[in-house]
Amino acid sequence: MPEVADIFRRYGGQYLADFGQAMLASHRRAFDDILRCRTPEMGGELYVCDHCGQQHYAYHSCRNRSCPKCHGKDTQKWLDGRKSELLPVPYFHVVFTVPDQLRRVIRSRQKLLYPLLMKAAAKAVIKLAADPHYVGGLIGVLAVLHTWTRTLEYHPHVHCLIPGGGLADDGTWRPARSNYLVPVKALSKIFRGMFLDFAAKELGPGVLSPALRRRPWVVYAKPAVQGPQKVLDYLGRYVHRVAITNRRILSVDDGKVTFRYQPSGQNHWKTMTLAAQEFIRRFLQHVLPKGIHKVRYFGLWAPTKRKSLRELQRTLVQAEQVDSAQASQVTPESLRPYTLEGSPCPNCRAGTLLHVRRIRPQKRAPP
């Protein structure tokens, strides 16, 4: 099955020749790391089967946060941590988007504006939810930054997972209505005002068009009817990756890349074919600058509120149920470094693999 690394390997040379001088440092680092990931250049481990004697090489991962082959264990660890923080209440999935006219500004000032985008989204929904007409308490917000559409085009937006209720000032839990958190029209106006105020303060006058305050911004909010785990699984898929997984790539031939995507709101798959150079451009534009955190926690999920969150969990469910659920999420096995030691031999299926030695990084594969 073709991978992003295969596309870089076959067509990346021409891309570097055409655009290498203009590439951002983060893009070039991701490009190089993805090319080297799980190849002899990374070094690795040598295993041998105790039955047939067949040797097996396992090369190290690059661990670049944009690599589609890395971070399987990290993703599971992140999901386990978030599961342990869930409350036994309904949840909502809220998505904040920005107008087309603002995308170029954000893209040219990513390190400055991405954090402000996430902050404005979280602060807006926290402010509106604090109104007694809706929730009347402090809600939790897990915010995850995405910058892509399903066809890899640039579209910065923020996904938020929010529990259906909040913690009131008197320490009691205030549940939200079962299918309604806050009015999205009011939420979009507050989000628009907050982000533009934050951005104008940092950018100065003349950068943002006054028309941005007059046109409507789109915010989606819907109950997580299949439970918060479904939303977490979707968000976790790209917490340590970007834009596309390798299994969505169908073919790489004749300078073209064909991949599948699922249109928003539809249950069937479509295919798209792009020139390899265009595919590489679309992929790299979603590589975040160094230092940008794509996941942030606000309200009840803020690091400073962990004690309040645990007390609330104990209030809403029995203490022993919380403790046992947390203990079952993160196990020593899930935190153990990846190794093939003791795995069945893929050659004979009768023996197990034994670790022989570590392989130093090299330019060519061992004989």
Please give the radius of gyration in angstroms: 23 Å
Q: How large is the count of helical segments? A: 11
Question: What would you call the structural class?
Answer: alpha+beta
Spans of at least 5 consecutive residues whose pLDDT stays below 50 are 319-337
Helix content: 25-40%
Share in β-strands: 15-25%
Spatial separation of the terminal alpha carbons: 24 Å
Total strand count, please?
13
Order of helices and strands: HHEEHEHHEEEEHEHEEEHEHHHE
Strand order of the largest sheet: 8-3-5-4-12
Main pleated sheet: 5 strands, antiparallel
Structural domain count: 2
Residue-averaged pLDDT: 88
Global outline = globular
Brief characterization of the structure:
With 367 residues, this protein is α+β, with helices and mostly antiparallel strands.
Outline the structure in words:
- The protein is of the alpha+beta class and 367 residues long.
- The chain has two domains: 1-70 and 275-285 and 341-367, no CATH class; 75-243 and 288-333, no CATH class.
- It contains eleven helices and 13 strands.
- It has a five-stranded antiparallel beta sheet with strand order 8-3-5-4-12, with helices on both faces. A three-stranded antiparallel beta sheet has the order 2-1-13, with no helix packed on it.
- It is globular and about 70 Å long.
